[in-house]
Specification:
heterodimer; A: six-stranded mixed beta sheet; four-stranded antiparallel beta sheet; 22% strand; disordered N terminus; B: 243 residues
Chain lengths: 280, 243
């Protein structure tokens, strides 16, 4: 998977083992073909939450300067992976390297922007006060604050108390609080949930503008349609990576026409394979 | 340390946007002290005993409740998780809270002591400013204990229950009901290790003694020590990584 060329014409041999994670657990440190290096390198990550084994053994590489979509059903481990990457998740074993530093290390705290799944902003402050606070923590200027407000299209409401905002405005405020520091890597947990289509489109446009400017983005979503918006896709189900490919590559490999069907095809293929193993 | 001030500024801004909470924090102690003065209208010597002790009890209690709930909200809203991915250190986070509520405590202490002395007629013999200093240190202690306690609360409901659990025993043993010297063995020793005892001791000293700075300053020192201890413990129990 990491050795799939970006343009997506994967070899037929790959189709036989769709997204086998063992296959993915990178051997050599060959960088992903594309815009350069690996920005986030997760190797043999194992996470247990409570009594549940959420991520048994996950390895993945996320390329620099691209929008990588982390897709899959809720409960599949998306948030856990994201929390591990930003260094707030207790990890049982495995290594995560982000922009060349171990995940969660102090050097990364002004280089990585994180947006939690539930909008994490202060309800009793205005939009601008929220963004300004997170900006100050990271050393952003007043211009950065206005820029961030502008990017998420909240210019007309910036003085409004967050408690009075709609869900969509709330999640955009939360996003702006991460944008304001102009981080090198942005890790966004379901940032487009509940937004109207126009806003969603404008956010994806923003994500690509940021990526073009060299930002690495990891964006999770449980909406399969958003696959078309991503440069690369990671399909995560039950704590395992089913696929790590471009959308085109994925569709070609599974012979399907949209991400949802491709996802189902991969699950079916895997289950068939599983039964085969039991039988033999 | 700059980020502690930035954080304190943010907390104060939140409070400013919530005038009702400020009102409750500042007015409720005055009402309660006024009530005590009224109850003992014909026995001013009792109010002179209870009043100063209450000045030690209120700042700690109010700040404890407010802090434990606000920080719990930080945990639950995800803002804490987010803050811990920013350059803000755990110590700066804690200090930000102590600073912000210290400012509120200063206002509260000025109001409550002025109210007690000039409106309710409480007599104090020591210097007035020392009364304010004790109240502020006491309130900062309440904030520190609240920060520590919120680490153990899983819900706002539990956080509220910590008030009776953490504060009421101190309230019973601080010398308000029976002078600490007269407590039975065991309880006396217990009250010696509870911080509120020292706040009430200091207030009582200021009420009854003309100038006995040394014991007041010793008590203030002990209160500061307890706050630092609670803040350090709180920072240690605050985990960047959670399940």
């Amino acid at each position: 998977m990491t050795n799939n060329p970006r343009h997506g014409s994967s070899e037929p041999a790959d189709a036989a083992v769709p997204g086998n994670p063992r296959h993915a657990a990178g051997e050599a440190s060959a960088p992903v073909v594309g815009r350069g290096e690996v920005a986030i390198d997760v190797a043999h990550l194992r996470v247990v939450r409570g009594k549940r084994l959420v991520l048994p053994d996950l390895s993945v590489r996320i390329p620099h300067g691209e929008v990588t979509g982390l897709l899959g059903p809720s409960g599949g481990g998306k948030s856990t992976l994201i929390r591990s990457i930003v260094g707030v998740q207790l990890v049982e074993s495995g290594t995560i390297t982000v922009l060349g530093e171990p995940a969660g290390s102090p050097q990364l705290r002004h280089r990585v922007g994180y947006v939690t799944q539930a909008p994490s902003v202060y309800a009793d402050l205005s939009i601008r006060e929220n963004i300004a606070y997170f900006g100050r923590l990271i050393g952003a200027s007043g211009d950065d604050v206005e820029w961030a407000i502008d990017q998420v299209g909240l210019g007309d409401h910036a003085g409004q108390r967050v408690a009075n905002l709609s869900g969509g405005q709330l999640s955009r405020t939360s996003l702006a609080c991460a944008l304001v520091g102009r981080p090198e890597a942005l890790v966004l947990d379901e940032p487009t949930v509940g937004l109207d289509p126009v806003l969603r489109r404008s956010l994806w446009t923003l994500f690509h503008e940021l990526a073009d400017a060299g930002t690495t983005l990891l964006v999770s979503s449980h909406v399969m349609d958003e696959a078309t918006r991503c440069d690369r896709l990671l399909l995560l189900r039950e704590g395992r990576i089913l696929a790590d490919d471009t959308l085109d590559g994925l569709l070609e490999r599974t012979g399907t026409r949209d991400a949802e069907s491709a996802f189902l095809a991969l699950i079916d293929a895997e289950e068939a394979e599983g039964r085969g193993e039991v039988a033999s | 340390m700059r980020l502690a001030f930035v954080t304190a500024g943010r907390i104060l801004r939140q409070l400013r946007n919530d005038p009702r909470t400020i009102g409750l924090m500042l007015v409720v102690p005055l009402v309660l002290i006024g009530l005590m003065a009224w109850i003992y209208k014909d026995q001013p010597q009792i109010f002179d005993h209870v009043g100063p002790a209450l000045l030690g009890v209120f700042p700690l209690t109010v700040m404890f409740i407010v802090t434990s709930i606000t920080t719990l909200r930080e945990r639950q809203s995800g803002t804490l998780e987010r803050l811990l991915t920013t350059p803000l250190t755990k110590g700066a986070f804690m200090s930000g809270y102590a600073l912000a509520f210290g400012v509120v405590a200063l206002v509260q202490a000025l109001l409550a002591s002025a109210w007690s002395v000039w409106v309710c007629g409480m007599s104090i013999r020591g210097p007035w400013w020392q009364l304010v200093v004790v109240a502020v240190v006491d309130a900062v202690l309440g904030t520190s204990l609240g920060l520590l306690a919120s680490g153990f609360a899983r819900s706002e409901f539990q956080a509220v229950q910590f008030m009776p659990a953490f504060i009421l025993p101190q309230f019973l043993l601080c010398g308000l009901f029976a002078p600490r010297d007269t407590l039975p063995t065991g309880l006396k020793q217990l009250s010696d290790v509870l911080p509120l005892s020292y706040a009430v001791d200091a207030m009582n000293t200021l009420a009854t003694t003309v100038s006995d700075n040394s014991t007041v300053f010793r008590d203030i020192g002990i209160l500061v020590g307890f706050s630092i201890l609670a803040l350090v413990l709180g920072a240690l129990t605050l985990r960047r990584r959670t399940e």
